[in-house]
Amino acid sequence: MIEAPFFPRYLFIVLDLNRHQWRSVNGTIGVSRLVMCGDRPNPVPHGVVEALVEATDALGILQFGRKLQLGGSVRLLAGPFAEQIAILHNLGDAGRVQVLLHILGRQVAISTKANNLLPLQQDQL
Q1: Phi, psi (5° rounding) for residue 103?
Q2: How many CA atoms lie within 13 A of 91 on its CB side?
Q3: How far apart are the C-alpha atoms of 120 and 67, rounded to whole Å?
Q4: CA distance 74 to 69
Q5: Which fold has domain 64-124?
Q6: Is residue 85 within 8 Å of residue 120, measured between CB atoms?
């Protein structure tokens, strides 16, 4: 295990696109550009940043595994199924877990590391 930024070179900001002059952010020293979807900033889904903050320990290191609950919804953060929503099925040994992913009309069990999962609340689905 190594310590590394989870989102290197990213800064998350709160914007009201109807109120704030968000285009000026791109001119701020140190900012490359906003992540865009067409001609507007692309927002992070509600609750994701809050879940990341909640999952950090006292040193600012993400510790996703401590918030996992069997039967709970999780977002896969890495691997070929990144960004998919799954159900936590089994907590295995050595930091491995098994999740149920809905693929081609059925649930498929896949195994991954616990730190590859972001626990989700009902309002984040």
Answers
A1: -135, 130
A2: 11
A3: 9
A4: 9
A5: SH3 type barrels. (2.30.30)
A6: yes
Q: Is the pLDDT of residue 79 over 70?
A: yes
Largest CA distance in the chain: 50
Pure H helices in 64-121: none
The token pair that represents 120 in the structure block: 């989700």
Question: pTM for the full model?
Answer: 0.53
> Quick one: pLDDT band at residue 107, thresholds 50, 70, 90?
very high
Question: Quick count: other Cβ atoms within 10 Å of Cβ 6?
Answer: 11
Residue 117 near residue 101, CB atoms below 8 Å: no
Alpha carbon 26 to chain centroid, angstroms: 24
pLDDT tens digit string along 31-61? 999 999 999 999 988 888 888 888 888 888 8
- Residue with token string 């990144």: 82
